[in-house]
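Hi there,

I know you've been waiting on this one. I reran it after we fixed the sequence typo, so this is the corrected version. Both the input and the resulting structure follow.
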Amino acid sequence: MATKIRLQRHGRKSYAFYQIVVADSRAPRDGKFIERIGSYNPNTNPATVDLNFERALYWLQVGAQPTDTTRNILSREGVCMKKHLLEGVKKGAFDEATAETKFQAWLKNKQASVQAVKDKDSEAAKAAAKARLEAEKEANKAKAEIVAKKKAELAAAEAAKQAEEAVAAAPAEEAPAAESAE
């Protein structure tokens, strides 16, 4: 039986996520499968992969052929690297301890590069948020200046109006007093 390691689509329209399954190559995409070995969610940043490493390695070793996308996923997770190193052990190129040391070094390097990308993305997001905050502060400051200017104009207009009323009221009060004095 020709087996494939492939993706099985789930989710709603425009928001797909996938199960990584081992299936007969003649079975339909979302049909019957032999074993589910993981999941893949491309909707997150970075894409989330949950994989049973040992079972994926087992299926590769017994001859299951991954599709192009699953080959990329398995390579990124290190399954293909581990298979390659184990093939070298079988051929006698090096011993199993050396293979494990090489794999752990590769895995550490891979995790460091992924973490660097995540840190870079988070720093970019923080910088964008800080820039937005500064722009908002500047806009609020400009609005506050305009409001203060309008309030000062209104206060000056009100003071002028009260002064006019006081001047108008004062001569009117003085005129009857001056007439009574005569």
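Quick highlight: The chain has a mean pLDDT of 90.

Best,
R. S.
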